[in-house]
Amino acid sequence: MLHRRALLGAPMLAALPVMGQAQESWPNRPVRVIVGFPPGGSLDVMTRLAAEQMTQRLGQPFVVETRTGASGNIGAEALARAAPDGYTIGTVSMHNLLINPHLFRTLPYDPERDFAWISAMWDLPNVAVVAAQHVPAQTLQEFAAWAKARPGKISFGSSGVGTTIHLSGAYLAGRAGFEAQHVSFRGGAQTIPALLSGDIQYAVDNLASYVGVIQEGRMRALAVALPQRWPTLPQVPTMTEAGIPGFEVSPWHLWAAPRGTPRAVVDRISVEVRAAWTDPALQQRALTMGARLTGSTPEGLAERLAREKPIWAEMVKVSGAQPE
């Protein structure tokens, strides 16, 4: 009997190392990384930086796939509907999870139930910018006075309804006391040309998208929406210093996977992200690009989302943005 049981159990015991090896072998083919905003924008650039690091660390290509539109909702939906096999992850903006539920009557995904959290990735602070060729104002207060003198003629751009860029532009107009019309673009790569051509007058957009044109002198940075000045642009005041206290908006982004993705895969990516982000040279590279690397455990990411949920709900209310 004992001999028979041993023979019957042998196949099961033999299978255990194979199962372990299968888990340990992840990834054994390319991993798709979905990003919901156009190539050339800050979110795309940072996603490619992260994908480059993961490719080096894990030995398989992390291939960025662009799925744009609807304020990032199309990309978020594609991620939510993907197979939870560990070979699709995505860069998700916190606005898809914390802001869009207040601005869209229906969403093609459930922010609470459709994702497996991996890690916070980076903060992308917003900066108020104007085109140097078209706007004479040198300071935020001068710009507010200039805008007030042109009722009905001031507009600002964003990468879509419900983005922090949209809310920040509307919030600035409300706090500074001038009227402004919102114009929606597909991303920073379209907003910047509209500013430089004079089609719109300002934006409060991700610093990462504007560092180059600011340093070239084609765009003038009036203030950063942070509690402290940005290290690589020390001459640019904070919003508080520029006369609008308490205006601190730092949009951030995270990596998530479809709900049901194996926890071992989620943990592995999270560990590798946090390890990569400790590199001082990489941190400085990100700062130069206008981003601050963060990183977190899946639990830490869930806690941050829960903590900021009421803050962004209030921001939507103050901005006056309405559901579509």
The tally of beta strands, per DSSP, is 11
CATH superfamily of the largest domain: Bordetella uptake gene, domain 1
How much of the polypeptide forms β-strand, as a percent range? 15-25%
Q: Please state the second-level CATH architecture of the largest domain.
A: 3-Layer(aba) Sandwich
What's the CATH class of the largest domain, please? Alpha Beta
> What is the helix fraction of residues, given as a range?
40-55%
As residue ranges, the low-confidence spans are 1-22
N- to C-terminal separation? 71 Å
Largest sheet at a glance? 6 strands, mixed
- As laid out across the biggest beta sheet, the strand order is 2-1-3-10-4-11
The helix/strand order is: HEHEHEHHEEHEHEHEHEEHHEH
Number of domains: 2
Protein name: Tripartite tricarboxylate transporter substrate binding protein
Pfam families: TctC
Signal peptide: 1-22
InterPro entries: BUG (IPR005064), Bug_dom1 (IPR042100)
